[in-house]
Amino acid sequence: MFINLLRFRFRDGVPEEERARALEAISRTAKSEAVSFSVVGRDLGNPADGFTHAYCVGLADLSALRRYFDDPLHRAGDLLFLPLVGRLWRMALTDDADPALGEKIHAMHAEKMAGDPEWAALLSAIPDLQLQG
Protein backbone atom coordinates (compact mmCIF):
# COMPACT_ATOMS: atom_id res chain seq x y z
CA MET A 1 0.00 0.00 0.00
CA PHE A 2 1.20 3.48 -0.92
CA ILE A 3 -0.24 6.57 0.82
CA ASN A 4 -0.04 10.00 -0.80
CA LEU A 5 -0.80 12.83 1.63
CA LEU A 6 -1.05 16.46 0.58
CA ARG A 7 -1.41 19.28 3.10
CA PHE A 8 -2.28 22.58 1.45
CA ARG A 9 -3.83 25.99 1.62
CA PHE A 10 -5.31 28.09 -1.12
CA ARG A 11 -3.74 31.35 -2.27
CA ASP A 12 -4.94 34.45 -0.48
CA GLY A 13 -7.95 36.01 -2.17
CA VAL A 14 -9.29 32.87 -3.85
CA PRO A 15 -13.10 33.17 -3.63
CA GLU A 16 -14.95 30.51 -1.67
CA GLU A 17 -16.86 29.32 -4.76
CA GLU A 18 -13.57 28.64 -6.60
CA ARG A 19 -12.21 26.79 -3.55
CA ALA A 20 -15.37 24.67 -3.47
CA ARG A 21 -15.05 23.84 -7.20
CA ALA A 22 -11.39 22.87 -6.73
CA LEU A 23 -12.22 20.66 -3.74
CA GLU A 24 -15.01 18.98 -5.73
CA ALA A 25 -12.58 18.36 -8.59
CA ILE A 26 -9.92 16.73 -6.42
CA SER A 27 -12.61 14.76 -4.59
CA ARG A 28 -13.55 13.25 -7.96
CA THR A 29 -9.86 12.42 -8.52
CA ALA A 30 -9.76 10.73 -5.12
CA LYS A 31 -12.63 8.47 -6.22
CA SER A 32 -10.90 7.15 -9.34
CA GLU A 33 -10.90 3.37 -9.76
CA ALA A 34 -7.21 3.13 -8.85
CA VAL A 35 -7.75 4.56 -5.35
CA SER A 36 -8.35 2.13 -2.49
CA PHE A 37 -9.42 4.82 -0.01
CA SER A 38 -9.34 8.59 0.29
CA VAL A 39 -9.94 11.58 2.53
CA VAL A 40 -10.38 15.16 1.28
CA GLY A 41 -11.12 17.84 3.82
CA ARG A 42 -9.80 20.03 6.59
CA ASP A 43 -6.25 19.83 7.87
CA LEU A 44 -6.40 19.25 11.63
CA GLY A 45 -2.72 19.95 12.24
CA ASN A 46 -1.23 22.93 14.01
CA PRO A 47 -2.69 26.13 12.46
CA ALA A 48 0.77 27.70 12.77
CA ASP A 49 1.91 25.27 10.05
CA GLY A 50 -0.21 27.27 7.61
CA PHE A 51 -2.31 24.47 6.13
CA THR A 52 -6.09 24.52 5.92
CA HIS A 53 -6.89 21.40 3.87
CA ALA A 54 -5.65 17.87 3.25
CA TYR A 55 -5.92 15.28 0.50
CA CYS A 56 -4.99 11.67 1.13
CA VAL A 57 -5.26 8.65 -1.17
CA GLY A 58 -4.29 5.04 -0.67
CA LEU A 59 -3.08 3.11 -3.69
CA ALA A 60 -2.57 -0.64 -3.59
CA ASP A 61 0.67 -0.82 -5.60
CA LEU A 62 2.71 0.73 -8.42
CA SER A 63 0.21 -0.47 -11.01
CA ALA A 64 -2.55 1.43 -9.20
CA LEU A 65 -0.28 4.48 -8.96
CA ARG A 66 0.27 4.37 -12.73
CA ARG A 67 -3.49 4.18 -13.36
CA TYR A 68 -4.03 7.06 -10.92
CA PHE A 69 -1.40 9.22 -12.66
CA ASP A 70 -2.85 8.42 -16.10
CA ASP A 71 -6.52 8.86 -15.15
CA PRO A 72 -8.02 11.85 -17.03
CA LEU A 73 -9.86 12.75 -13.80
CA HIS A 74 -6.48 13.36 -12.15
CA ARG A 75 -5.31 15.84 -14.77
CA ALA A 76 -8.68 17.57 -14.99
CA GLY A 77 -8.82 17.97 -11.23
CA ASP A 78 -5.30 19.31 -11.04
CA LEU A 79 -5.93 21.85 -13.80
CA LEU A 80 -8.67 23.37 -11.61
CA PHE A 81 -6.90 22.88 -8.29
CA LEU A 82 -3.20 23.69 -8.76
CA PRO A 83 -3.55 27.33 -9.94
CA LEU A 84 -5.41 28.14 -6.70
CA VAL A 85 -2.88 26.63 -4.29
CA GLY A 86 -0.50 28.83 -2.32
CA ARG A 87 1.16 26.18 -0.18
CA LEU A 88 1.38 22.43 -0.78
CA TRP A 89 3.48 19.87 1.04
CA ARG A 90 3.45 16.20 0.10
CA MET A 91 4.33 13.19 2.20
CA ALA A 92 4.36 9.59 1.09
CA LEU A 93 4.07 6.49 3.25
CA THR A 94 4.15 2.78 2.50
CA ASP A 95 4.09 -0.66 4.04
CA ASP A 96 5.92 -2.07 0.98
CA ALA A 97 9.34 -3.53 1.86
CA ASP A 98 10.87 -2.80 -1.58
CA PRO A 99 13.88 -0.56 -0.82
CA ALA A 100 13.68 0.93 -4.31
CA LEU A 101 10.00 1.89 -4.10
CA GLY A 102 10.73 5.58 -3.46
CA GLU A 103 12.97 5.73 -6.51
CA LYS A 104 10.33 3.99 -8.64
CA ILE A 105 7.65 6.45 -7.52
CA HIS A 106 9.99 9.39 -8.11
CA ALA A 107 10.68 8.08 -11.63
CA MET A 108 6.93 7.83 -12.35
CA HIS A 109 6.44 11.39 -11.12
CA ALA A 110 9.37 12.66 -13.22
CA GLU A 111 7.91 10.88 -16.28
CA LYS A 112 4.53 12.54 -15.68
CA MET A 113 6.22 15.95 -15.34
CA ALA A 114 8.20 15.44 -18.55
CA GLY A 115 5.16 14.17 -20.47
CA ASP A 116 2.83 16.97 -19.42
CA PRO A 117 4.61 20.35 -19.41
CA GLU A 118 1.37 22.25 -18.67
CA TRP A 119 0.79 20.18 -15.52
CA ALA A 120 4.45 20.51 -14.51
CA ALA A 121 4.31 24.31 -14.92
CA LEU A 122 1.19 24.56 -12.75
CA LEU A 123 2.83 22.48 -10.04
CA SER A 124 6.04 24.48 -10.22
CA ALA A 125 4.11 27.77 -9.94
CA ILE A 126 2.93 26.98 -6.40
CA PRO A 127 4.76 29.52 -4.21
CA ASP A 128 5.45 27.13 -1.30
CA LEU A 129 5.86 23.60 -2.66
CA GLN A 130 7.59 20.68 -0.99
CA LEU A 131 7.39 17.22 -2.52
CA GLN A 132 8.88 14.71 -0.08
CA GLY A 133 9.02 10.97 -0.07
Explain this structure:
The structure is a single chain. By secondary structure, the chain is of the alpha+beta class. It has a single domain, classed as Alpha-Beta Plaits, CATH 3.30.70.100. The protein contains 5 helices and 5 strands, in the order E-H-E-E-H-H-E-H-H-E. Strands 2-3-1-4-5 form a 5-stranded mixed sheet. The longest helix is centred in the N-terminal third of the chain and has 15 residues, at 16-30. Residues 2-93 form the Stress-response A/B barrel domain. This is Stress responsive A/B barrel domain superfamily protein. InterPro entries: Dabb, Dimeric_a/b-barrel. Pfam families: Dabb.
Measure the end-to-end span.
Answer: 14 Å
How many distinct folded domains?
A: 1
CATH topology: Alpha-Beta Plaits
Structural class: alpha+beta
What profile does the largest beta sheet have?
5 strands, mixed
Oligomer: single chain
Q: What is the chain-wise order of helices and strands?
A: EHEEHHEHHE
Tally of contiguous helical segments: 5
Q: Any idea what the shape is?
A: globular
Q: Helix proportion of residues, in percent? A: 40-55%
Give the spatial strand order of the biggest sheet.
Answer: 2-3-1-4-5
CATH class: Alpha Beta
Which ranges are low-confidence, i.e. pLDDT below 50, for 5 or more consecutive residues? none
Layout of helices and strands, plus pairs?
Layout: E1 2-10, H1 16-30, E2 35-42, E3 53-59, H2 62-70, H3 72-81, E4 85-94, H4 101-115, H5 117-124, E5 128-131
Helix pairs in contact: 1-3, 2-4
Protein name: Stress responsive A/B barrel domain superfamily protein
Organism: Corallococcus coralloides (strain ATCC 25202 / DSM 2259 / NBRC 100086 / M2) (Myxococcus coralloides)
Domain Stress-response A/B barrel: 2-93
